[in-house]
């Protein structure tokens, strides 16, 4: 599956769209945020899973930006609320508060993800989780779904100066794992993971069922694709 990089010493896994289907959590928290912004009795925009699937993956700020653009385009908040930049900090606070409460309630571990993690651990590979969602939310979600025990490190979008698709988070995660990027497999679902991995010099494997901004994932530059993380058993030869 990774013909250019058959030997690996560790793996880094993305979270949203790769290990856990979190679109339900995102949509619920965002709709509560939109209700807060609209105020009582006002018409409000709503978002659904499909919309979130196109916007998610570049961290909370980017997601809120997309949602506010969508809401403001509907012009339901009146002239006062039309200033996106002014609304952003309040929206972000509201969203993070709601997400913290909802975290995990409408989320599901993808079929095969647990088997894949077990296969990697059977090979004795140290594992890190590297996501663009805030570290606190990532840790709480992994714990709630019983996946935290697989990882020696969990880093979120606030852990480093820049987020994926910048290669910095991958380089830093390799440092924490004590492995060379060329021997550290990145497993993700989107262009953010693929581009960050390429730039960091990590081999990259992409799942085909995640969220890639509504674009076909197989068009991305990667070393391999899997329809389920259960296929890792074959890929890493556990
Ligand atoms: O953008 C986010 O919040 C999460 O994205 P990721 O887990 O796919 O990195
Ligand atoms: Mg992802």
From TrEMBL:
Catalytic activity: 2-phosphoglycolate + H2O = glycolate + phosphate
Catalytic residues identified in the record: 14 (nucleophile)
Entry EC number(s): 3.1.3.18
Domain of life: Bacteria
UniProt pathway: Organic acid metabolism; glycolate biosynthesis; glycolate from 2-phosphoglycolate: step 1/1
Record-level GO cellular component terms: cytosol
Cofactor names: Mg(2+)
GO biological process: DNA repair; glycolate biosynthetic process; reductive pentose-phosphate cycle
Alphabetically ordered keywords of this record: Calvin cycle, Carbohydrate metabolism, Hydrolase, Magnesium, Metal-binding
Residues binding Mg(2+): 14, 16, 189
GO molecular function: metal ion binding; phosphoglycolate phosphatase activity
Family named by the database record: Belongs to the HAD-like hydrolase superfamily. CbbY/CbbZ/Gph/YieH family.
Protein task: Specifically catalyzes the dephosphorylation of 2-phosphoglycolate. Is involved in the dissimilation of the intracellular 2-phosphoglycolate formed during the DNA repair of 3'-phosphoglycolate ends, a major class of DNA lesions induced by oxidative stress.
Assembly notes: Homotrimer.
Protein's name in the database: Phosphoglycolate phosphatase
Organism: Rhodoferax sediminis
Lineage: Bacteria, Pseudomonadati, Pseudomonadota, Betaproteobacteria, Burkholderiales
Gene designation: gph
